[in-house]
Amino acid sequence: MSDADLLARHLGGDPHAFSEIVRRHRDRMWAVALRTLGDPDEAADAVQDAFVSAYRKAGSFRGEAAVTTWLHRIVVNACLDRMRRKSVRPVADDELIEAAEREIPATDQAGEREVSLEVTAALKLLPADQRAALVLVDMMGYGVDDAAAVLGVPPGTVKSRCARGRAKLAPILSHLRNRSDLTRVSSGKGAELRDG
Predict the structure, then answer these.
(1) What do you get for the CA distance between the two ends of the chain, in Å?
(2) What are phi and psi of 131, to 5 degrees?
(3) How far apart are CA 126 and CA 135, in angstroms?
(4) What is the pLDDT of residues 64-79, one digit of tens each?
(5) Tens-digit pLDDT profile for residues 177-188
(6) Which of 15, 74, 160, 180 has its CA at a distance of 20 to 30 angstroms from the CA of residue 54?
(7) Strands (E), 32-107
(8) In angstroms, rounded to a whole number, what is the distance separating the alpha carbons of residues 115 and 181?
(9) How far apart are CA 147 and CA 18, in angstroms?
């Protein structure tokens, strides 16, 4: 059954349809929230807020985009709302390590974990709008048009936010460029950051 069918069944009163949507998409939504907020607890809260909002506002889904795009938009907005309401508390190194260990398969080398932690810490230095665009495009593998739909902005805005974010990250992460052992850094959910 498609996501759109499940959403229609939810609107029709099926008590199990929305829980299936949550089951299908919670891991990917949590990955977006974690990369956007950089804090596992804040990310979990944002995803919970987003799914509650999606549950309540399911009738507002117009079907112009995929259900996953609609959910991503709600999750990103929940993250941005949390960042605006209060500054996200600094994340302790042990929390970052714990979050990275949950995301990176055990077969990855220690060097890739270290790089993943460095990238996550560097992302936290960016403004929220640039961070959200980079997470969607560079880490989650969205096309510019899809990321624009999620963020509710024109594609040109996504491109400029990504360009500005990459320009800010380049000097911070430049030491990773010439590592011969690094060809890619996994985001933990299938998308990759490419070296160079």
Answers:
(1) 40
(2) -60, -45
(3) 11
(4) 888 988 999 899 989 8
(5) 665 555 444 444
(6) 160
(7) none
(8) 11
(9) 24
